[in-house]
Automatic annotation (TrEMBL):
GO terms for molecular function: L-proline transmembrane transporter activity; proline:sodium symporter activity; sodium ion binding. It is found in: Cell inner membrane; Cell membrane. GO terms for cellular component: plasma membrane. It is a multi-pass membrane protein. It comes from Aliidiomarina iranensis. This is Sodium/proline symporter. Catalyzes the sodium-dependent uptake of extracellular L-proline. Belongs to the sodium:solute symporter (SSF) (TC 2.A.21) family. GO terms for biological process: proline transport.
């Protein structure tokens, strides 16, 4: 490993820890500060922290790898994500910010569910917290797998040491600085990712001679590489587009909407966030295609490279961004580009750790074990929870069993199905009640797990259609049917809903 590369990475890691220390002194005095930054994020930080926590290691490893292997047949996934993110900003973000504040200043998603439906049984809080802990622990493990893979492939480090190093730095700044530190590091990491996903494909296309030579070489590999419809099936396209449905139920993303300082800031946040996302996704797609062309043209010269097989083929498609960043750039710049991958990984892990710790703290510890716990005690419990969840996630990722994109896809579907329909209907449907909410959450989560893990005729149903589709469909049906069959919401709940509608009318986009 070149000295310049190491220097760049060390400086990046020191900067992340420094932001964590800043966050500690700036905003961890009470629980709202530690878990939600005091609801005072600006639109720029909101947009980039939401984007960076969304686009984890799969953006720089999983998606380029998918395009390297399958080309434009994967473009439907990108289209689905862009549409889903835009709808999330328009449909979910403003109302969720308003409603969570009006519903007793709810600072976690389970907190919001309980206050929104006046659930005195506490079942909504309990079940939603369990869903968060289960799926986020799995989701966090996918990020750690990406971190371990990065250090193993880029630095020749033992996978397990890379795993521990990734977790150690993220845990340090998350545990110390809380939500503000996580959001600020996400902002910086989002900027780094954006620059990297512009630099790498632009440099690759320039070196290969432009669009013409790249498309010519890619076309030689397979007719599917440049044709989004080649070999595509109806259910295959629907499955890829359905990734966009997941946005409405991702706690680590929508919690940013809860923390923005004003509903009026969402217009600016949306414009920043969508511009960032579209450019980043296009960059990731072009990186995969340029990588396929580069290996096709220069594969023989790459024999002996640690990322390549003896026959000149790439050993792991998900390392194509790493390969291009190290071959095409000076080591100092290459280190910056590797830091972009680390930034993508860490930004998501930190957000997931914080949301999971808030569920353990606010929705388990305070609600069921120590109702009179002070903010100081809860912040301390939150920090312990961050550490504990990281340890479990390290254990789950110790032996990687799936691709990064596959691991992310499972957790993404779990949250999208369990929380997506519940969030949207809770914001727009006055007649929804707690039993419908509970039914939708349970049905959505169980449908996804069934689709992934239960074999039918020798294979799981997820091989035919992405588990998000049936999960969201059945959860929505469960919410509507059960809400209709059980009692109407009481007057206090309907008054709160009407008040929220009134406030939204005062704040048109």
């Amino acid at each position: 490993m070149e000295t310049g590369t190491i220097v760049s990475l060390v400086l990046y890691l020191i900067a992340m820890l420094g932001i964590g220390v800043y966050g500690y002194f700036k905003s961890t005095s009470d629980l709202s500060d530690y878990m939600l930054g005091g609801r005072r994020l600006g639109p720029g930080v909101t947009a980039l922290s939401a984007g960076a926590s969304d686009m984890s290691g799969w953006m720089l490893m999983g998606l380029p790898g998918a395009f390297y292997v399958a080309g434009f047949s994967e473009v439907w996934l990108a289209i689905g994500l862009v549409i889903g993110a835009y709808i999330n900003y328009r449909v979910v973000a403003p109302r969720l910010r308003m409603y969570t504040y009006m519903a007793k200043d709810s600072i976690t998603i389970p907190d919001y569910f309980e206050n929104r439906f006046a659930d005195t049984s506490r079942l909504l809080r309990l079940v939603s917290a369990v869903v968060i802990i289960i799926f986020f622990t799995l989701y966090t493990s996918s990020g750690l797998v990406a971190g371990g893979t990065l250090f193993e492939n880029a630095f020749g480090m033992n996978y397990h040491w890379g795993l521990v190093l990734t977790a150690g730095v993220v845990v340090a700044y998350t545990l110390i600085g809380g939500f503000l530190a996580v959001s600020m590091t996400d902002f910086v990491q989002g900027c780094i990712m954006f620059i990297a996903l512009v630099m790498v494909p632009v440099a690759a296309f320039m070196i290969l001679g432009g669009t013409g030579p790249v498309t010519t070489e890619v076309a030689k590999l397979s007719p599917a590489m440049l044709n989004p419809f080649y070999g595509a099936t109806f259910f295959g396209i629907i499955s890829l587009l359905a990734w966009g449905l997941g946005y409405f139920g991702q706690p680590h993303i929508i919690v940013r909407f809860m923390a923005i300082r004003s509903v009026r800031d969402f217009k600016v946040a949306r414009r920043i966030g969508m511009t960032w996302m579209i450019v980043a996704i296009i960059g990731a797609m072009l990186t995969g295609l340029a990588g396929a062309a580069y290996v096709q043209m220069e594969g023989a010269s790459l024999v002996g490279n640690p990322y390549m097989n003896a026959d000149g083929s790439i050993a792991n498609a998900e390392t194509i961004f790493i390969i291009l960043s190290q071959i095409l750039f000076h080591p100092l710049v290459g280190g910056f580009l590797l830091a972009a991958i680390l930034a993508a990984i860490m930004s998501t892990i930190s957000s997931q750790l914080l949301v999971t710790s808030s569920a353990l703290t606010q929705d388990f510890y305070k609600s069921f074990l120590h109702k009179d716990a002070t903010d100081k005690v809860q912040v301390a419990v939150g920090r312990i929870s961050v550490f504990a969840v990281a340890i479990v996630a390290i254990g789950l990722s110790w032996v990687p069993r799936d691709t990064i994109l596959g691991l992310v896809g499972n957790a993404w579907a779990g949250f999208g199905a369990a929380f997506g329909p519940l969030i949207i209907l809770s914001l727009y449907w006055k007649k929804m009640n707690r039993w419908g909410a509970l039914a939708g959450m349970i049905v959505g989560a169980l449908t996804v797990l069934f689709w992934i893990y239960v074999p039918i005729g020798g294979e799981t149903l997820s091989t035919h259609i992405y588990e998000m589709v049936p999960g969201v469909l059945f959860a929505t049906i469960a919410i509507v049917v059960v809400s209709r069959l059980t009692e109407d919401p009481n007057d206090a709940i309907q008054t709160l809903f009407n008040d929220m509608e009134g406030e939204m009318a005062k704040n048109p986009d």
